[in-house]
Amino acid sequence: MRDAILDRTAALVAKHGLKAVTMSQIAEQSGIGRATLYKYFADVELILVAWHDRHVSEHLKQLAAVRDGPGNAWTRLEAVLETYALIAHEQHSTELAALLHRGERIVRAQQQLRDIIKNLLTEGARAGEVRGDTAPLELASYCLHALTAAGSLPTKAAVRRLVRVTLAGLRSRP
Questions:
Q1: 61-87 pLDDT per residue, tens
Q2: Which one is the CATH code of 52-168: 1.10.10.10, 3.30.70.270, 2.30.140.10, 1.10.357.10?
Q3: Whole-structure pTM value
Q4: 132: which DSSP letter?
């Protein structure tokens, strides 16, 4: 039931906008009464926060799976950065992002993401594939900030070009 409520709410917000969605609409679309809906969530914002938390968790699992995939550190770093950039490319509206991208849970998720990238950069530096003149944490921040731009790019091809440019800044120099 909870997942259905989350999915129906996200669909309503996508169709009508954040401010136009009511608990009555959500209950109706979910096939439940308002009283039942209120047993799960107190308001629309809490539903959207739960929906967003679920997506963030899924994205972190996806990135961890890519990180743990086959290949050397550089290959896995490349795959993680491309996956992250493609996720950023499919972001929500600015209004919804402003509501959801705040708070302690987002800080923790960002830290997990930064650690995934930092650890790959550390491994890559040890193997001589990633530049060693800059701390891996600084390089991870560079990657995340650079790839945030993927959300404003028009195509997946443009996103992949951005990833290549970002990776070029990470390569060790002979």
A1: 999 999 999 999 999 999 999 999 999
A2: 1.10.357.10
A3: 0.85
A4: S
